[in-house]
Amino acid sequence: MTRRIMIQGTMSGAGKSLLCAALCRIFKQDGLRPAPFKSQNMALNSFVTADGLEMGRAQVLQAQAAGAEPDVRMNPVLLKPCSDTGSQIVVNGTVRGQMAAKEYFRYKTELIPDILAAYESLTAEYDPIVIEGAGSPAEINLRENDIVNMGLAELVDAPVLLVGDIDPGGVFAQLYGTVALLKPEERARVKGLIVNKFRGDVEILKPGLGMLEELTGLPVLGVAPWLRLDLDEEDSMAPSLRQKAAHKAVDIAVIRLPRISNFTDFSPLDSHPMLGVRYVDRPEGLGQPDMLVLPGTKSTVGDLLWLRKTGLADAIISLAGSGTPVLGVCGGYQMLGRTLTDPDGTEGGGPGPVQGLGLLPVDTVFGPEKTRVRVRGVTLAGPVAGARVEGYEIHTGNTTADGPAFCRLDDGRMDGCVRGSVCGTYLHGLFDTGEAVQALARTLCRRKGVAYADHGYDDRAERLDGQLDTLAEAVRRALDMDAVYRILEGTA
Prior knowledge:
about 500 residues; 6-stranded parallel beta sheet; alpha/beta; Rossmann fold; 26 strands; 6-stranded mixed beta sheet
């Protein structure tokens, strides 16, 4: 039987995703062939696989840590929130439909065959499987028909490591309370506890760890340190989207839309030593950036109306009128156009056209079909003109443009549109190549009159690999890996 181990957390944000990535990299370094698995993920940051299917980016990162090609079997169910009470349901990489939370709660057990088929298929090719839970197994109101935490652990007979986040405080209560709320048979699956994101002297923590072991009857397998890493964040509530960027030579403002998606597109920019990225959700916070970005969104029409309501729409139009470079990506590109029409109501709009910001000569018509494709090309205009780029399209709606294209794709298609200092594109991952980031930094520095220094900026894939090695090294030092392997082998 293929070996498996599951990481569950005391809450969202406890660090499950990165601990799973660390274990994937450690197992790979130790000569194994690991693969990640998360039965159900809820995220607006998604990715298109080589075969044109959609999955969550957290499992993409974990696959990269494992040295495996991202595969939808690693994340068979993806929920993409489109409102506070409803989500688009993506199963095995394709859209199954849209459901309100109550409807999905009743429906989700019907997905167990899809989940188990994906898991069992992975076990035929990989060993071990590193499984990630979601939220907390102590959400007792959601225990019935669980398919992602203890319910999944039972389905695949997986041992569980429970991780708590010490950074906000209360980690002992987190871990003890979670264990206490589990059913006896669920508690028996938990083989060890992990304290995550610790800053300080572990010796001071040890008396509490001993008491925690006595109270729970479970060993503390280690205290993982708080790390500053350049790795994608999954949650739109991530700290990087709440904090003002550190001062750098160039100031890039990204509009933090209510349903912002694929904000990982801009992580490579913030990694460049001359580019500072900050997220803005009100006009008074906008100021005079050197470039403004309208990102992707799961609710294009709804977020466009939000821009108008908050006054950000007028502020964006004013900045564009003054010559400030404006870039729209995916839904942001659609917003920059003249009209957005939703005849089938797939975007929640009415049958008539909604007026866009009018900064690009393009019109978008939404439909039920979703475009999912990996692409490569060369940018033709705008602040990254002449750069080789690669990424993926993932959107509903077809856009027709009356102006020059932003990018020529290798498959012969033209992408996006440019007018003056405003440009738009459907290409997610635009800045994953060092060439594109360097081109943007040079252009914005030249425009601002700042001397540009070549910092030898690497492609994102190269930086990512080094960061994953750093993560794995820290986790290997922090955890009792002998105990982890005993749990994996079923001898603990």
